[in-house]
Amino acid sequence: MPVATLPFVDSRRLPSPCGSKMHLTSFSLVVAAVLLAALSSAGCAEADGREMVANGIGRTPEPTEAPVVETVVPTNSLPEGEIPERGSGDGAGGSAQGVDHGSVYVDSMAGTVGGTGAYDLSHPQLDGLALDHPVNVALRGPTEALRAEFVSVISERSGEESSAGAGGEQGDSLRGSGTVYLLDDRLVSVVYEFQIEWAGAAGPDERVDSVLVDLATGAEVGLGDLFVSGSPWLETVGFFARQDLVIRLGDGVLWPDGRGLGPEVSNYAVFGLTPEDLVVRFASHQVAPGVAGTPEAMIQWSSLAGMVDISGPAGHLAG
């Protein structure tokens, strides 16, 4: 039986425009190589273009700032020593352990911010109450608020030159603590003193704050809550505060125009209670030049007789 075979195609030669001849197969291979090279070149360019955009090459990158890193030392939730108490050591302390709230212990928070700032703060807590109890939350409120402000300021300056200068100069620092003025079965009163030292500043930034908490309700109590509504308590507190400040600071130290002592609640927002006195603290430069610091004025409860609400939070102190 004859074997079927595929037709044999003889190669042909095409005339070259230049007069020479090229084999068809060779010509086809050259054309294919040229086309392949062109396609490969276009494909690589396109791929490189996408890669360049994805990697940010060939364009100006968006400006970035390194985040400010805060390193925090864990706070102490267990009793450690004793918080300073007003009058401690002379028998005049106003602190007493309660059946429900327990006694006072120190809780602390310390850390560094951005490598240029450091803070070391402490505040009182009551060991008979949970950490998330409203009373304990209120007692650590001033330190937490100022710590947040300190961190925020340093974060805003993160793009600027480091505040820690050469030659061993210190960076920014925040320190402070709370002093228990009163702790009985009804109230806990704490006054806080803070000092911020900004690198390069002429002097420290001194701050004062206070918290008065009703242990029965867990609510914070304002100074106005202690007095009979409609009574001239603001004017009376201002009068006696001025008298005591003159005794403490001397004549001619207070601002001549009496600023900071007018009958406005905001002038007396920082205060503490003791069994004998209402103690008002004033901010730096509020009532006198900065050399006076953050002065205090003490007003005996007997001077406020008839104006303190006997059924109110401080009635047991003035009665």
The main sheet comes to:
6 strands, mixed
Tell me how many strands there are: 11
- Give, in spatial order, the strands making up the sheet with the most strands: 3-4-5-6-7-8
The parts where pLDDT drops under 50 for at least 5 residues are 1-58, 74-83, 88-97, 161-169
Mean pLDDT: 78
Class based on secondary structure composition and strand pairing: alpha+beta
Radius of gyration: 39 Å
Note the topology.
Blueprint: E1 13-15, E2 21-23, H1 24-55, E3 70-73, E4 104-113, E5 117-126, H2 134-139, H3 141-156, E6 172-183, E7 187-197, E8 205-214, H4 233-249, E9 271-273, E10 277-281, E11 296-300, H5 315-318
Parallel strand pairs: 5-6
Antiparallel strand pairs: 1-2, 3-4, 4-5, 6-7, 7-8, 9-10, 10-11
Description:
The chain is built from 5 helices and 11 strands. The chain has helices at residues 24-55, 134-139, 141-156, 233-249, 315-318, and strands at 13-15, 21-23, 70-73, 104-113, 117-126, 172-183, 187-197, 205-214, 271-273, 277-281, 296-300. The chain is α+β, with helices and mostly antiparallel strands and 319 residues long. Mean pLDDT is 78; it is low at 1-58, 74-83, 88-97 and 161-169.
Q: TL;DR?
A:
The chain has 319 residues and is an alpha+beta fold.
Key terms for this structure?
single chain; 319 residues; Heat Shock Protein 90; 2 domains; six-stranded mixed sheet; three-stranded antiparallel sheet; 24% helix
